[in-house]
Write a structure and sequence with these properties.
The chain is built from six helices and no strands. With about 140 residues, the protein is an all-alpha fold. The protein has one domain. The radius of gyration is 18 Å and the shape is elongated.
Length: about 140
């Protein structure tokens, strides 16, 4: 029991630092994404638009998956920050690419079309899983 408590005491500060850093990266990425999108998700949410809520939920989960992968595979705080930023930038670019391909998607979400939001969720989570898997590649240099 004593070893478990000592392990907790010595590891808990690192847990807080790494988890806090990952949370901050996620918050910054979500904010950046919201600022880049043509529709105003928060205003739509406040007006009761469920599709905007679905689409934003897909974004948050889609951004969290690569961050979780970085958190799980990082060997240092610098490693987490660098690969976290890289993965988030790639994910945001992937999101923007999807948004460009599905041109009428922002309008459809503004019109509260759930089907459009569900498609967006699927594409964003799928791209997050692919990016997340690439972060586990043993050939990727770790810091």
């Amino acid at each position: 029991m004593k070893a478990a408590v000592e392990s907790f005491v010595s590891g808990f500060p690192d847990f807080l630092i790494y988890t806090g850093t990952a949370g901050l990266l996620l918050l910054l990425a979500c904010t950046f994404y919201i600022l880049l999108t043509p529709q105003k998700e928060m205003a739509l949410l406040r007006s009761g638009n469920a599709s905007a809520g679905l689409a934003l939920a897909g974004v948050i989960v889609g951004l969290a998956i690569p961050i979780a992968s970085c958190l799980a595979s990082s060997v240092s705080l610098a490693d987490l920050i660098i690969w976290g930023i890289v993965s988030l930038l790639i994910q945001i670019l992937a999101f923007r690419f999807v948004d460009l391909i599905l041109r009428d998607l922002p309008k459809r979400i503004e019109n509260d079309e759930a089907g459009a939001a569900i498609l967006l969720i699927a594409v964003k989570i799928a791209s997050a899983l692919i990016i997340s898997s690439a972060l586990w590649d043993p050939n990727v240099a770790r810091l």
